[in-house]
Design goal:
15 helices, ten-stranded mixed β-sheet
Length: 870
């Protein structure tokens, strides 16, 4: 039987509202018959029909779509044996090119000049009647600030932190809400606005008013009546505004103060004022993913510490508390958040820096419920004081962008399975509208270096297309004319280096190349390369310029600008100081230049830009030559040895001939001397296991992966981590933080996904699933076996359907089951050296193995393979 397993429009399977005149439809298939071929595909949208010849996607090129209209699309497919399948999806268009009848409004009398705090919260109100039967009612709304809508006393929609975090002066999203069922004969629409990222305090310097001097709101409510008439209720000077609502204060870092005694009747409303934005921005229907609540957590333990009740939710995450309270009027409750505890059981908030991460709630009488709307926290533990435990119930919910699961991994080693869960929770905790660094302290910024290195792992675990493309749109907007990329996107008041914001910074700016390329390899859509090509090119040219700055001859290709302008081998555990990490920048930067220019050459080839392909290939080769000439002895040995300095040129293919094998041997010796503990900072960590395992040192790679000494991935697991740490030594064996004066002011986050990039090795080597061509049109499965791992399973959804690789070792027999989706092909490599070309369907294979001498739990292949299929 043929099935259409997934059918999406603009990468959404439901709820799509788009301003794109040419929306993209995508689908994949499943079949219980091996060797299925699709012979016919037809897409029907209203009266328009289109025969589709391409694999699994279509960019709409039919009749012009009307604005603010609902559409239904149906896909009809036929297989070579006559099996038929069909599936439908609905979507809507937004305002498209229609001008806004609404105007931005604000409190015209409010003057906000205070520094390092967020503005007062505004509440806008519109009362209106609907004296005819309503057929459809839709709200289109956005803000400079952060807003929540309530209609007739109920929250509108499921979204949080709207309109989302963008480079507001260039890109601004609006949301669309169907409120047909919420309308009554008389209605009150309230819009509550905090400063959010646009106006409120942000970045660790707590700058504010970066986008505008105060918040403002834009809204249109379109009502279609059953008699065919229409009405638009739009923001203008007839709306009312008040500053004295129940949300007394709201700040991304500090949290919320809420007075439940204040209702609409207690607020002093006055006429709102029309507000002229001090800039012109591009307002589009939401093209990113909404931020919503997901998993719910009950406390796994509740205990007291002094006058506080301590709740442990058993998992570190980004989210919100939900309070159910039997309260007395005027009673004040304080809730604080933390990732870890002090040894005495109290919350450890030392590493939050200036972030208060606090909720202050003032009760009304009786039973009441509360959840904050204008902030979020990173935490595992909360403390509550001001009320007894029997009169309050505290639960928590994870809050992150609505990314869908895309891949999974499990194996026989339960500590590695916990590591995989830590990787996934690290991603979810930091996918809060933008890819952040951490969710708890006074940062939560879109650091480019973290996602640059984590992108491969991210796109395996989650369907990140809309999420990453939204962020890249802001990166393009904020790229400097000189080609440099700000280290945080959106930068929103932050710039590093402060004195030279136009400079290119290796690995951090590399996100402009690495992130689009990772997403392209995941989904095969060339558009992400096309959209970002000029940005990539400008960035790589900036890197070339800075490498050659004040240099001559071949040294022009050795990127050796002042180390303080780079991050270098960031948080490398083998050296204790930030300045020492940065001094490694000539190694990291030169390797970066070789890698990004090599990828750019490949991308140019994909896009048919042959001159650029040749040019950037030469740039890559020149950087690799300079690295070998000036930083090595010419025979694969570094003049100054450290793990990252070997890892990068090995993995990026910068060594030639025997140099690569020698370099891998030297890296393996460094790893052995370090008792198989990791010594890489951010740049080398994603690649070190590949550099070892792909070059004859599988044992060393698995010994490092399974090491439980500090620093290592499984040391964090052994210490009870439920997410990835920013620093390998975040806690010592006694559970206390040992980080001292290293120049970072004891910087430590316990929810920082960058080092979780090791997941890429689990999926591509342990499970063995690796794309050969973009979108997994062709892929290989080639498990690398070691570390005592006796079974592993990896699954990943692709544009063609789900790939599944599940293997196990029993005695001296290796067996594997493989699922190849319709429309793709697989080359399977078995441990005995045999290989098999597989078409779509389910397959199983076995072969003989024998233990490798001297390596516990590792294997080499031997004997004849035995093939079968089902």
């Amino acid at each position: 039987m043929l099935q259409i397993k997934k059918f999406t429009v603009e990468e959404l399977d439901r709820g799509c509202v788009t301003d794109n005149e040419n929306p993209v439809f995508a689908w994949n298939y499943d079949s219980d018959r091996n060797g299925t071929t699709i012979v016919s595909q037809k897409l029907v949208i209203g009266d328009y029909e289109k025969e589709i010849l391409s694999d699994g996607s279509y960019t709409y090129d039919g009749p012009e779509l009307s604005s603010m209209r609902e559409y239904s699309a149906k896909l009809i497919a036929e297989a070579d044996n006559g099996d038929m399948a069909e599936k439908s999806i609905s979507f809507a268009t937004g305002k498209m090119h229609d001008p806004w009848s609404g105007q931005f409004i604000t409190d015209g009398e409010y003057v906000f000049k205070e520094k390092k705090i967020s503005p007062k919260v505004m509440v806008f109100r519109k009362k209106f009647a609907t004296d005819k039967k309503v057929s459809k009612a839709v709200i289109y709304s956005t803000a400079i600030g952060m807003y929540r809508l309530d209609l007739n006393g109920s929250k509108v929609g499921e979204d949080f932190l709207t309109p989302g975090f963008t480079s507001y002066k260039t890109n601004l999203q609006y949301q669309t809400y169907d409120v047909t069922d919420m309308l009554k004969e008389t209605n009150t629409l309230l819009a509550t606005l905090s400063g959010g990222w646009a106006v409120g305090s942000f970045v660790f310097s707590r700058v504010n008013r970066v986008t505008a001097d105060k918040q403002s709101f834009l809204c249109e409510l379109h009502i279609l009546f059953e008699d065919g008439t229409k009405e638009v209720i739009a923001t203008d000077a007839s709306w009312e505004v008040a500053l004295g609502g129940p949300v007394l204060s709201a700040d991304i870092y500090d949290g919320e103060e809420y007075d439940a005694r204040i209702g609409e009747g207690e607020m002093s409303f006055k006429k709102a004022s029309v507000y002229d934005l001090p800039f012109t921005t591009n307002i589009k229907a939401q093209y990113g993913l909404p931020v919503r609540e997901h998993e719910t957590f009950e406390a796994v333990s509740i205990r007291t510490a002094g006058d506080e009740i301590i709740y442990d939710f058993g998992q570190n995450f980004a989210g919100l508390v939900h309070l159910e309270i039997d309260g007395n009027k005027g009673e004040e409750i304080e809730v604080k958040h933390a990732e870890v505890l002090h040894p005495d059981g109290r919350l450890n908030t030392d590493f939050l820096r200036s972030a208060k991460a606090r909720i202050r709630y003032i009760c009304k009488d009786g039973h009441q419920e509360y959840c904050p709307s204008f902030t979020y926290m990173g935490f595992r533990y909360v403390s509550v004081k001001g009320i007894s435990a029997d009169r309050i119930k505290v639960t928590a919910r994870a809050l992150y962008s609505d990314v869908k699961d895309n891949g999974s991994f499990t194996c026989s080693n339960e500590m590695i399975n916990r590591l995989q869960e830590n990787i996934r929770w690290g991603a979810k905790s930091n996918f809060v509208d933008i890819p952040t660094d951490c969710p708890q302290r006074d940062e939560r910024m879109g650091w480019t270096g973290d996602i640059a290195l984590f992108a491969n792992t991210a796109v395996y675990n989650y369907d990140c297309g809309r999420f990453l493309k939204k962020w890249l749109k802001d990166m393009r907007a904020e790229q400097r004319a000189t080609g440099g990329i700000p280290n945080t996107i959106p930068s929103q008041g932050y710039g590093f280096p402060v004195t030279m914001p136009v400079i290119a910074v290796d690995f951090w700016g590399d996100a402009s190349v690495l992130v689009p390329y990772a997403q392209y390899m995941a989904d095969g859509d060339e558009k992400i390369l096309i959209d970002n090509y000029e940005m990539m090119k400008k960035y790589v040219n900036a890197c070339r310029f800075w490498a050659g700055f004040l240099s001559f001859g071949k040294r022009r290709h050795l990127w050796n600008t002042m180390s303080v302008l780079h991050f270098g081998d960031w948080v490398a555990p083998d050296v204790p100081k930030m300045s020492q990490w940065q001094k490694r920048s000539k190694w990291t930067a030169t390797a970066s230049l070789s890698n990004t220019s090599s990828l750019l050459s490949e991308i140019a080839g994909i896009l048919g830009k042959s001159e650029d392909e040749a040019l950037y290939k030469k740039v890559s080769e020149n950087a690799a030559d300079a690295y070998r000439k000036y930083l090595t002895d010419g025979n694969g040995k570094l003049k100054e040895e450290f793990q990252t300095a070997y890892v990068l040129p090995i993995y990026f293919g910068m060594f030639k001939g025997k140099e690569k094998a020698n370099a891998a041997n030297n890296l393996a010796e460094l790893v052995k001397k370090n008792d198989y503990k990791i010594g890489t900072g951010f740049p080398g960590t994603p690649y070190i296991l590949f550099a070892l395992a792909d070059n004859g040192h599988e044992d060393e790679a698995f010994n490092m992966l399974t090491n439980t000494q500090c620093p290592s991935w499984l040391y964090e697991v052994k210490m009870g981590a439920t997410t990835i740490w920013e620093r390998w030594d975040g806690l010592d064996e006694n559970g206390t933080c040992p980080i001292g004066d290293d120049g970072t002011e004891t910087m430590i986050s316990y929810n920082h996904y960058a080092s979780g990039a090791v997941g890429d090795f689990l999926y591509r080597r342990v499970a063995g699933i690796e794309a050969v061509t973009a979108g997994y049109k062709s892929f290989r499965i080639k498990p690398v076996i070691g570390g005592g791992i006796t079974s592993a399973s990896g699954k990943v959804d692709t544009p063609y359907g789900e790939i599944d690789s599940t293997w196990k070792v029993s005695g001296d027999v290796f067996s594997i089951e493989v699922h190849v989706p319709v429309g793709s092909t697989c080359q399977l490599f078995l441990p005995d050296g045999s290989s098999h070309h597989l078409e779509n369907g389910h397959h199983t294979f076995t072969c003989k193995m024998s233990p490798r001498d001297g390596v516990s739990g590792s294997f080499v292949s031997s004997g004849d393979g035995v093939k079968g299929s089902f």
